[in-house]
Amino acid sequence: MEGWQRAFVLHSRPWSETSLLLDLFSEESGRVRVLAKGARSRRSNLKGTLQPFTPLLVRWGGRGDVKTLRSAEAVSLALPLSGITLYSGLYVNELVSRVLEDETRFSELFFDYLHCIQALAGTNGSPEPALRRFELALLGHLGYGVDFLHCAGSGEEVSDTMTYRYREEKGFIASLVVDNRTFTGHELKALANREFPDVVSLRAAKRFTRMALKPYLGGKPLKSRELFRQFVPKKPPLKSPQDLQ
């Protein structure tokens, strides 16, 4: 099996009448762009294989920015994502595509990605906990170190009922100011443990990861978020008592 790697397709698009241009996330080489020649032709044995969320074994060659796919085999059927979990998976794929440098090894993150997709496929509830855990894992692998358990000002352990304001490159400092950058000690402990026992801690995790990921994403909006907004119907406005009569 020399030269083979475990990988997932993050994104694909047509390239010529018969080929596909793929962004892969591989175990050993990280994010790689490859050209799958003939993959769209009727006779291709790859037709239907090179899809997002399908565990693959792949080989490629070449020295340029775009490699040439040599072989690909599906390890199993695609992980079953649909509805809100499908859009969540697309968000994870876009996050990896936007944030990771080309051909940089992120073997541990590869398995964090796999566990996230498996969690999304197996969930009967909200996808939010799986997404927050992956975002925190991604930040950790990018070298974004932050101490959730100690006040950056005093060094003391955070207290559940105290409030702490987040300051970039410093951490969380005890503060009486309450705004979007303020978190309770209870919420910070949930972030440290990557466990979110209640709605409050889950919302706090989303606030933090959005702030922390923003410098990596720049000003360009995520397409998957826009798709998600279109998928989730807007709540109708509250009716007045007169309308209910």
UniProtKB/TrEMBL annotation:
Cited Gene3D superfamilies: Nucleic acid-binding proteins (2.40.50.140), Recombination protein O, C-terminal domain (1.20.1440.120)
The UniProt record lists the keyword DNA repair: yes
Record field: transmembrane: none
Start and end residues of each DNA replication/recombination mediator RecO N-terminal domain: 4-76
Keyword DNA damage: yes
Domain of life: Bacteria
Homology family: Belongs to the RecO family.
PANTHER family attached to this UniProt entry: DNA REPAIR PROTEIN RECO
Protein name: DNA repair protein RecO
Gene (UniProt): recO
